[in-house]
């Protein structure tokens, strides 16, 4: 009797294990990162969409309406690095698209690397500043280079950070020439990209590109009173900046799709049983990085065109690979372009913060305290860089100077908080400190990080581009579609660092080497 009971239990157990077998490994994982995509905009403009884009994603995908980034000061580069590494700037090193090089006191791009030449560009680039492995790297390692990895994006930081250290190729649009370009860091510049550049790249077609609203003006809501006529932009009308304007418009998404079609037709990606990764980036921000007030109609039409680009991409992948062989991961960079200052119409409290004046006064304070010298070397992106060589020559305590400087800065109008590098590396923990720490990297960040109050305008004396500070949350989605993903809409927030372990678990490979987050169960 007892033996028969045990046999029955074992039979039920193994039957249950067989019923819960792991889903099939996809032939292709498509990661689509949409720069500045917002859940609230995606939902608000739904009456303007067709049935095959956003509505299909909402209907057939596992939709997380809110992703959370566990660090402050998100931008495109830091967001994409976090998505593909599964960790924060404190580990992967990508604190922003640009930072100050303390050896030259000049701004550098996060993918600058003079050791490698460009293809169809004079920019020298590589992922050398990305300090941890990515999901694409782990795929190459596990498959012994058999898994293919290609990245296509409007900009070089997005393409290179997505392709990782081991990708087959990363392609972005040259904003000066309109050609698709790359870097000699990656071993191949495929013949089909050369062929495409010679006959079909945007520079051949931009003279005919005109952006006008798809729908009648009455279809667009919450327009400013002065907007009573539809917009019309001809990209070719401004000779020097025409491709920059193209890259900061929804038309760039169709250009990404066109090169993707070439890749799918001219390569073997997604054609065998070894999983491959196609890493794409779209743009969904304000046209030409203007303010929302200036671009209310343009923003709504951007989402209409984005909806159509997504529909075209899904149809393309389905036709070339078959959606049953593909897992889509669609997400956002989780930030929005900063706004122009409020001109007083709505009487929002605020003021002006002048970085140069702040840096000058801090240097005067340090001179009064420690003697003559140029203690403050530079200010960049709300960070102050101190003169370490002078401090060392004077045999002063760097940590003490950092902390005293932070105490001095907190007295300025408009400063909410000032964090010293010493405090971030060795000070006590708090939830807010954790977000700042995760955004800080000792090799790339400044000695002092300044948090400006929301509503205040940072006045850059060297430019006319003054922007108001906002701390408001940007609702950013994560959508998983394909394979055996069950449709569901989830309002509970999910951490962006969980994307990497989720995709690697689906491909049966290791998570990136600095990723400690867990996979999303689906």
Notes on the protein architecture:
- The chain is of the alpha/beta class.
- It contains 18 helices and 23 strands.
- Strand 7, helix 7 (156-163) and strand 8 form a beta-alpha-beta unit.
- It is globular.
- The two termini are 40 Å apart.
- Mean pLDDT is 92; it is low at 7-21.
| Biggest sheet features | 10 strands, mixed
Could you say which structural class the secondary elements and strand pairing correspond to? alpha/beta
Count of DSSP-assigned helices = 18
Name of the CATH architecture of the largest domain:
3-Layer(aba) Sandwich
- Assign a percent range to the helix content: 25-40%
Rg result: 25 Å
Oligomer class? single chain
The domain count comes to 2
Ends apart, CA distance between termini: 40 Å
Give the low-pLDDT segments: 7-21
Q: What is the CATH fold-level name of the largest domain?
A: Alkaline Phosphatase, subunit A
